[in-house]
Description:
Distance between the termini: 30 Å
CATH topology of the largest domain: AttH-like fold
Structural class: mainly beta
Oligomer: single chain
Mean pLDDT: 77
Amino acid sequence: MLTHGLAILLAFCVLVRASAGVAQTAAKDIDLELFERSQIDRDTGCSVVLWQHDRNPEQDKHAYLFHEPLIGQNHVRQSARIKIGDEITLLKRVATGGNSPGYRLFEYQLYQLPEENEFAILELKLAEMQLGAVEVVSGKLTVVMDRKPKFRVSVKGKASCATSDAVVPPDEGNKASSGSRKPSSSSPNSIMTACFEAAKSTDIPTDFECDWKGVVASSQGATLSGKYKLRANGADGVMTILEPDDGPAYVGIQTLRHSTTAVCDVGMGALRGEKNELIARFDDPGDCDVRVSRIRGTTSVKVTTTKQCNPDLCGNGTSFDGQWVLTTK
């Protein structure tokens, strides 16, 4: 976690606690709505969900306030969601503080809304992990928007997976009969697993420790694994791809647009499409596909996104589209 980010988070928490009385009288100024139960899919994959403290998500049609999908076997964080009015608003976690009993769910978390200087703050009381789940015993969700009084609501929740298979590391899936659950430190699987674990532990999808040369060498050109740099005028970009022999791949992308200094970064789970192609598909925004395809005869790849991805995927008009050059050799 970043010291600067944590300082911002703690400063916001102090500000919110000092103004709790005002927040209750300003509930109508920020139209924070509840999701319908059908809009939150907890039957597949892993997620962090929060619901209004006096609602029962198993019985009430409207209960959920916050939803954060965790994609793949390494629980790669996707954009969190809240509902303001009739619009779904995407949130990016930018700082954390306090303890984490699991799923990198912390007692204090700060999220950036699409607009500058607008934030969502979580202050949570967390139970210890039991049976693969972390319960949010109680907590507060505070939304801070420009020129509007803060809105604060009490929450409960849970971080969990729909099936126990989702928490098995990639190299251990379906291998219980092999005798040893821990691969040799020199094996290709161990290199990939170490990188997956590092990616799981970072909030910046392209910034983690990984033996990239070992990953590329072990793939022998059969996968798109590696670290890439964007080749484009007016923008910089870094992309990391981890594609195991089986199971979903991890794609982390970060771009900086010079003209606006807008930064967009996303960590995604992706699956094989056609030969030499990975596809990351989003339910929100709907019909948003990020496609990574090898450029024939080269080690470079081309990234294309469907029109439904922009501007909602990043919220600031930036794009991942373009040619990306492999930098690990």
